[in-house]
Specification:
Layout: E1 5-8, H1 14-25, E2 29-31, H2 43-52, E3 59-62, H3 76-104, E4 107-112, H4 125-145, E5 150-157, H5 163-168, H6 171-180, H7 189-200, E6 211-214
């Protein structure tokens, strides 16, 4: 069916960078706009970016997100920014790209969720709300778009061995976290990327509407 084009948000570092590299290795053309090109905090900026696209986008990976740790006293700004970047931004991006996917009778949308949409941890209220909403959006969108050969799924990673994880946790913290994971280790970014790449590919021809948890068994306990 020819080379596909994928749009991956938040691909300048961390998991997003590995996702983009994996899709490139799989033969896709990959768009990786930076924050100056695509500022998810601004609906106007999102609409402007979509209006400037000059080629069809077949695959959307909504990866960019923010996670501001705060208790029940979270600020209005933290709530609004988290919902905007983690939920509203992905919805607007998909809404802008879906008409083209429908016309071509092909599309793959992968929303990067989190285990904190499945289980709970202190300080994650705004983040958990945004990711839980993303899961619901995934299911609803999958039902609507299935007749057009557009498959929509979410991936919910657990603890992943990224620079951000190491920055936010001491070595002792990481040891405690690993002991709480049945597999006794963090996920490697490539392990998450392989799952995302499959969901984005033509090899995935029937799986849709699912939130796939990839956490080494952490949320099963």
């Amino acid at each position: 069916m020819g080379q596909k084009t994928a749009l991956v948000t938040g691909a300048s570092r961390g998991l997003g960078k590995v996702f983009a590299e994996q899709l490139l290795n799989n033969g896709m053309r990959v768009l990786t706009p930076g924050r100056q090109q695509l500022n998810l905090l601004s609906n106007e900026a999102i609409d402007d970016y979509l209006s400037l696209l000059t080629e069809p986008v077949d695959v959307l990976v909504n990866n960019a997100g923010i996670n501001r740790i705060s208790q029940t006293t979270f600020s209005d700004v933290d709530l609004e920014d988290t919902l905007q970047v983690n939920l509203i931004g992905p919805i607007r991006l998909a809404r802008g790209l879906i008409p083209g996917m429908i016309n071509r009778q092909y599309g793959r949308i992968v929303n990067i969720s989190s285990i904190w949409s499945i289980v709970s941890k202190p300080g994650r209220i705004t983040y958990a709300v945004s990711k839980t909403g993303l899961n619901g959006y995934t299911r609803s969108l999958a039902v609507e778009l299935a007749p057009y050969n557009i498959l929509v799924n979410a991936v919910a990673p657990g603890y992943v061995n990224t620079e951000l994880t190491r920055q936010n946790n001491t070595q002792q913290d990481l040891q405690i976290i690993c002991q709480a994971i049945p597999m006794k280790r963090l996920a490697e970014p490539i392990e998450i990327a392989r799952l995302v790449a499959f969901l984005c590919s033509e090899e995935n021809s029937y799986l849709t509407g699912q939130c796939l948890v990839i956490d080494g068994g952490y949320s099963c306990q």
